[in-house]
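haha ok so turns out i had the wrong file open the whole time. this is the CORRECT one, sorry everyone. sequence first:
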Amino acid sequence: MSLRMIELILSHDCGSFELKNIINLEDIIEYWEENISSQKRSLKFLVPTEKSSLILDQLEKTFSGSTGFRLILYPVEATLPRIQKRPEKSPPPSPQPETKKIISSLLPLSREELYNDIEKTVSLNWTYCLLIVLSALVASIGILKNNEVIIIGAMVLAPLLGPNVALSLATTLGDIALAQRAIKSIALSASLVLMPTILIGLFVPINPNLSVIISRTEVGLADVVLALAAGSAAALSMATELYAALIGVMVAVALLPPLVTAGLLIGAGQWPLAGRALLLFLTNLIGINLSGVVTFIIQGIRPLTWWEKTQAKKATRFALFIWIILLAILILAIYFNS
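then structure:
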């Protein structure tokens, strides 16, 4: 059983309260209370991972205005004795208290854990930039050698998927700051891929008849479907901690190879083919973000407070409208190019 430890820190001035009126005690495996100083006390809850999001929301909604309030979430690697699954009980006939009527998401992770994991992917540092440049160079070698295996290795190496999923999450939550960081990261990544590959294209002969180049300059409706499916799979993989599945998603999404192909062809002066490679890149980019937003919405990812929900709804509707319009334009461009 996957477990989380939730620690609630409050001031002694918070006063007494009935915990059963705030959270469903049957959702908790065990809890403790202790004084951590003369001014603060701590309550710790051992909970199943799938219940952590609901409990965090309930505690935050109740105590966020209290003095000294802080919630801390810890992953639990193991506990002894082992936790046995409780037999499922039929719901009580009486309605739950009003404070418990918080709709949880369909994710095993809490919203805060998901946000923290995805936010790391837009941290711009020298390691991230170096990985982008190295993956572009590896992909360039794979294209020049007409070697699909080398290109696949570069796709796994490149951290291009994370910022796109971050943009989808930011759109879903209406988080402008995260969206700006994600867009900045995507733009920088594209620049770091194009600059060295254009230079390579200027000085190294590029054969446009290579099979690896032809496959990245032919765009069809199947590529749109693939981008939508891969974007949804990426959002699901990151939201459910199925990180092993991300490797397959990185290969399926194909953000890096068309961008590298475009850079090489621009350097070689093959502008029409470069335009088709960029069209494939944009198809994948838009498909990933559109399906990522839809996937997060279906999973029940939402802000906590009503005014944040209202802001997020407006931002999500506007972003979805833009993504759908861009996708429609791309489909038309694909149709006329074919």
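The longest helix spans residues 306-337.
again sry for the mixup
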